[in-house]
Design a protein that fits this description.
- The termini are far apart.
- This protein is an all-alpha fold.
- 53% of the residues lie in helices and 0% in strands.
- Helix 9 crosses helix 12.
- It is elongated and about 55 Å long.
- Among the domains are: 43 residues, Arc Repressor Mutant, subunit A; 184 residues, no CATH class.
- The protein binds a DNA duplex through helix 3 and helix 6.
- InterPro entries: Homeodomain-like_sf, Myb_dom, Myb_TF_plants, SANT/Myb.
- It is found in: Nucleus.
- Keywords: DNA-binding, Nucleus, Repeat.
DNA sequence: AACAGTCTCAACCGCCTCGAG
DNA sequence: TCTCGAGGCGGTTGAGACTGT
């Protein structure tokens, strides 16, 4: 049983929009607002189908759409979120102010996907390709590949920290439980569901505290080690993301600093919990600041909870050298370390509840 | 200058979800 | 509970721009 197309034949125009058509659509929407797309073409005097009008408006004409080059931080966010969510372009776009899902999708397909492949990373799994002909090389802060053939030669010599030497991970914790909580119905407004949601948020925050703290610490060390930073490496992000963004994605999805709609939600449930002081109306949002705060504040809270000793971790990590050349192995190991079951303060086999936390 | 191959991205297509009746 | 339509979403297409020969 197939649905009838929303617009069939009827002399409707297709293809590129003309300036005149754009003007008509903008003028109509300014006057009458969005919505009722089916009727808009007729009322606005356009020979287009409503769906086409909606897409044209949403992806191109809307006044608060940012176009052009993606910043490095935006790229990192796309890669991070794609690693954990896959091709959920609308979800990814929600974390990029003024970017549309279509633009994010296009940018991924035309730029980021190719770059990851060039770096020997599977853009689907965000893991090193099986036949990795070109070991991942981090992009420099200037946005250019910093390929250095000599690194390849050194790679075999620099493996001072193989994954085996890293803290062993049993990695059986079911992070998917948290992740899937994001998949709850949108109209989740009942009292009980709100209570449930709050509990999940609280638990997620605590979990995130832990992971963010570790990620932050590791990032600092890697920064010193490779003259970069945690988020300045496209080779680092995908792997580390397997853990970091999985655990943070629920909170990222719930806490959208760029969405007015989520502002109320933050006020109600999350401000005390994560204590992030973002300017929700700031159109020139600083992604670096976002990520930095995201890690640092969570780290502070983790310490406040008392279930985790950052200094101990730092001493552990500092005692081990991290080389750029064997980074893939290192990061894989650290990723495992991040979800080491033995360090988790709750029973992952049970439903999330505060009582499961130490 | 002309042509072919490649890249980019706006736009389209078809399916899915959700709310209204 | 079912049907229907609007809107949302992800995959795909193709026209135009760009690049190499």
């Amino acid at each position: 049983m197939s649905r009838k197309p929303c617009c069939v034949g009827e002399g409707l125009k297709k293809g590129a929009w003309t300036t005149e058509e754009d003007k008509k659509l903008i003028s109509y929407i300014h006057e009458h607002g969005e919505g009722g797309w089916r009727d808009i073409p007729q009322k606005a005097g356009l020979k287009r189908c409503g769906k086409s009008c909606r897409l044209r408006w949403a992806n191109y004409l809307k006044p608060d759409i940012k176009r052009g080059e993606f910043s490095y931080e935006e790229e990192q966010i796309i890669i991070m979120l794609h690693a954990s969510r896959g091709n959920k372009w609308s979800v990814i776009a929600r974390h990029l102010p003024k970017r549309t899902d279509n633009e994010v999708k296009n940018y991924w397909n035309t730029h980021l996907k190719k770059r990851l492949i060039d770096q020997g990373i599977d853009p689907l799994t965000h893991k090193p390709l099986a036949s990795n002909p070109n070991p991942a090389t981090p992009r420099t802060s200037e946005g250019q590949d910093d390929s250095n053939p000599s690194n390849l030669d050194e790679q075999s010599q620099s493996g001072s920290m193989s994954p085996k030497s890293l803290p062993h991970s049993s990695s059986s914790c079911n992070l998917q439980t948290i992740i899937n909580s994001d998949e709850t119905p949108r109209n989740n407004g009942s009292l009980s569901s709100k209570k449930c949601r709050f509990k999940k948020l609280s638990c997620t925050s605590k979990l995130l505290n832990k992971v963010a703290t570790k990620a932050s610490s590791i990032g600092n060390i890697l920064s010193a080690s490779m003259e970069g930073s945690l988020i300045r490496s496209t080779t680092l992000s995908p792997c580390l993301n397997d853990v970091f963004s999985e655990t943070s994605q629920f909170q990222m999805d719930e806490f959208d600093p760029f969405s007015h709609s989520s502002e109320q939600h933050i006020t109600d449930h999350m401000k005390e919990d994560i204590n992030m002081d973002f300017d929700l109306n700031n159109s020139e949002f600083d992604f670096s600041q976002f990520i930095e705060q995201f890690s640092n504040i969570e780290a502070e809270e983790a310490n406040a909870i008392g279930g985790y000793n950052q200094e101990l971790l730092l001493s552990d990590v500092s005692s081990t050298s991290v080389y750029e050349d064997n980074m893939m192995q290192n990061i894989t190991g650290w990723s495992n370390y991040l979800v080491d079951d033995s360090d988790f303060p709750y029973d992952t086999n049970q439903d999330f509840d505060d009582k499961n936390f130490i």
